[in-house]
Structure formats: structure tokens, C-alpha cells
């Protein structure tokens, strides 16, 4: 397992941008597929984006495609989520996730994902 710590959340106006970061502990970061999920009040945790071990492939939920970009820096053990053109409906707690199986992250299999961060709040005001 890896330990994950998110940062970069905050309050932003609709149409603005935020960049989330997730720092991972351990020496085997590059062996983990990484993802971002979010959970709004009263709703289930949902898949946002995922990236393969080397960063060569990325996947997005339809609701964020074209607005969000996931990336990773294996030398820094960090994964990022650049969020542009934010909408009020993007308001949620955003969680970083890690699992050795890319498919587990991409299909959003929340109960099966090995490691989670503590979450960071993103609030978009309209």
C-alpha cells in the first residue's frame, strides 16, 4: 500500500481553475495506477479520472472530459488534477486513489481500490 496526501483544494468561482496534487509515499509509486474520485454531500463517491503507471494513458468521466487533466510525475511521486472551467456541480470532496490494477481504478470500483487519501474540499461558487 501507499500513503496518499492530497492538497490544492479550495473555494473558486465558476469558470475558474484549481490544481490538485496528491503526494504518495514509498518507492514503488510507478507500479500504481492512480485516480481521482469525488464525493458530493448525499451522493456516492464517483470516478473522475485515472492515469496508467507510466502516464501514457488517461481516462476521464464524461462530466469532466475536456475540462480536467490528470498527470503524474513519477520522479516526484505525485499525481495532479488540473481542473479548468469549473462548475458549481464540481463541488465535492476530491479523493486520490491508488491501485496496482489500472482497471480497478478506471471502472471506479471503490470498494476494491487499495489506497485512498484523506480528501480535499473543492467548492465552486456560482
Strand and helix layout:
Layout: E1 4-7, E2 10-13, E3 18-24, E4 33-39, E5 46-51, E6 58-60, E7 68-73, E8 78-83, E9 92-99, H1 102-106, E10 115-116, E11 120-125
Parallel strand pairs: 2-11
Antiparallel strand pairs: 1-3, 3-8, 4-5, 4-9, 5-6, 7-8, 9-10, 9-11
Radius of gyration: 13 Å
Measured distance between first and last alpha carbons: 38 Å
In DSSP terms (H or I, runs of 4 or more residues), the helix count works out at 1
Largest sheet: 7 strands, mixed
- Mean pLDDT across the residues is 96
- Which percent band covers the strand fraction? over 45%
Which class do the helix and strand fractions yield? mainly beta
Helix content: under 10%
Point out poorly predicted stretches. none
* Structural shape: globular
Number of E-state strands: 11
Summarize the helix and strand pattern as letters: EEEEEEEEEHEE
Amino acid at each position: 500500500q501507499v500513503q496518499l496526501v492530497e492538497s490544492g483544494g479550495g473555494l473558486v468561482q465558476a469558470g475558474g481553475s484549481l490544481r490538485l496534487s496528491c503526494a504518495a509515499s514509498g518507492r514503488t509509486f510507478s507500479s500504481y495506477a492512480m485516480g481521482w474520485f469525488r464525493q458530493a454531500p448525499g451522493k456516492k463517491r464517483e470516478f473522475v479520472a485515472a492515469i496508467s503507471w507510466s502516464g501514457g494513458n488517461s481516462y476521464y468521466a464524461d462530466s469532466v472530459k475536456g475540462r480536467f487533466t490528470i498527470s503524474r510525475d513519477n520522479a516526484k511521486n505525485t499525481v495532479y488534477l488540473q481542473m479548468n472551467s469549473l462548475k458549481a456541480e464540481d463541488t465535492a470532496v476530491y479523493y486520490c486513489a491508488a491501485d496496482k490494477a489500472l482497471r480497478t481504478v478506471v471502472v471506479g470500483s471503490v470498494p476494491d481500490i487499495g489506497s485512498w487519501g484523506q480528501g480535499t474540499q473543492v467548492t465552486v461558487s456560482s
